[in-house]
Each structure stands twice: as C-alpha cells, then as structure tokens.
Amino acid sequence: MPINIPAHLPAKQILESENIFVMEDQRAFHQDIRPLNIVILNLMPQKIKTETQLLRLLGNSPLQVHFTFLIPSTHTPKNTSQQHLNDFYTTFEQIRDKKFDGMIITGAPIEHLPYDHVSYWEELKEIMDWSKEHVTSTFHICWGAQAGLYHHYGIDKKMLPKKLFGVFEHDLLEKNERLVRGFDEVYYVPHSRHTDISIEDIKKVPGLKLLSVSQEAGVCLIASDDEKQVFLTGHPEYDTTTLLEEYERDLKKEVPISPPKHYLKEIDGKQVPVNRWKSHATLLFMNWLNYYVYQETPYDWK
C-alpha cells in the first residue's frame, strides 16, 4: 500500500530508505480512492520505534492507508518528546465521534501491574468499548492482547516463573482461517513477557478461535468469530535487533535476565541476531488489513 503519512514523521525517511512505498498527504489527496483509516493506540514507551515497526508491516499492500496516532490523555509519556506528541498524536476525546476501519492497540511494559492499577485503565476500557461500534476490526498486541481478552471476555493473565524471552516456533491450528492464509504450518514469533494466557481459558469462551500455539510460548494468535477482535501475544513487529537491545538494557540495569532463546546465531565467531519472523509478520498484518478490514468495512460509514 502507499502508506499515507505526514512528510516530516521520523518514520518516513527510514521507510523510504527500505524501499517501503510511502505517500505524502498532498499526493494522496489527489487520488480518487478512499483510504482505509487506521487508528493506532501507541502504549509503547519508545513511540517513534513502534511507529516505524508497525508502518513497515503495513506497507506492502495496494491499499492506501491513513493513520491516526492515539495516546491516553490520562498518562504522560516519558520517553518521547512533547513536540513529537503534539505534532503527530491525538487523544480519545478528539476522535470519539469518528469511525475507523481498523485499530491497533500496542503492548506496554506494565504486565506486573494489576489492570486496575494502570493509570489509564479506565480510559483504555472506554476506548475498547468504543471500538466495538466505531471500528471494523481491532488488532491487540502483547499486553494490549491480554488487556483486551480480560476486558472483553474476562480472561485474566497469569504470572510466569521467569520472563518468556526469545523467538519461538508456533504451530498453526486453523489452516483455513483467512487471517493466516498463506502461512506455513510452522512459523516463528518473538516474545518478551512475564505473563501468559491459559489455553484452557481461551477454549472455554464461546466466540473465540485459537489460531496458533507454541509448545514453549503457549497461546499466540486468537480471533473472535466475528473477526472484530484479534489478539496476538507476541511481538512480530519487532526489528531484528529489538530483543538484543532489551537484553543489553536489562543487563545494564542488573535485572536478572537470560539470553533470548532461539535468537542468536554464531557467524564469524560472533553471536548475532537472526530474523526468522519477518515474512510471516508481514503476511499476518496484510491478511488482517485485507480480509478483516478492507473486505468488511463500509465504503461510506454513514
């Protein structure tokens, strides 16, 4: 797709250097195509990195997509400049009367907190309720997936004895599901989390489809029967070096951490990260954008 983003968004130059098709607002305005309107609730601390990662995954389709970046008004980000937030982000109050074709709710490094201890939990619940009537399909990632499963279906997270950290092999359970069309029967996803969702708890809930699992990492991909909700416990949007950066960060902070599993490979005598998830990550987001959003959303929301 031509990704329709502002000319001065930091991600634009990075994506253009990677030969990702981006389009400035002025050029997009002159095309006689209704763009898909996607709102991204970015809860990650390093917002520019997350913007780039998500736009990269959504940048390989013939569809034109317009993005709105959203942050909670009840939380002040500490790792992103106020100028960047002012330039590119909006709040829920400013969009609550609008309709969107798709929504992405990112993860957040707050798994250790009970949901009702999260500073913006009440606002997030309101946004998730709003999405059921104002968004065609919502894609929840990592903590965002756990929060969505808890809020919509009452499925709580469980603490793990130690951090699940690495790149794990996953088995496809529903080969005919549109969301995983074109997937290999075995594929890889990075995970970085301290909590988990029980497979048994998912299976007990009518209206949910368990699409893939890992023998090591557990539940991975879940979708509602009506395709309005997608829950992904891993981080396929991660860059090749993201897990390594997290590992080195925790080492510097003297946080107990083991090296990420199934991730580093010895090349020329050095341990280097190897990306084994990029193609399936791109396919997953393309399938969501095509089958769950584009094929289902009305041309005119009115």
TrEMBL record:
EC number: 2.3.1.31
Gene3D superfamilies hit by this protein: 3.40.50.880
Active site, renumbered: 142 (acyl-thioester intermediate), 235 (proton acceptor), 237
Transmembrane segments: none
EC class of the enzyme, as a word: transferase
Pathway the protein contributes to: Amino-acid biosynthesis; L-methionine biosynthesis via de novo pathway; O-acetyl-L-homoserine from L-homoserine: step 1/1
InterPro entries: Class_I_gatase-like, HST_MetA, MetA_family
Annotated site location: Important for substrate specificity: 192
GO molecular function, one term: homoserine O-succinyltransferase activity
Sites where the protein binds substrate: 163, 192, 249
Free-text function comment from the UniProt entry: Transfers an acetyl group from acetyl-CoA to L-homoserine, forming acetyl-L-homoserine.
Protein name: Homoserine O-acetyltransferase
Organism in which the protein naturally occurs: Bacillus gobiensis
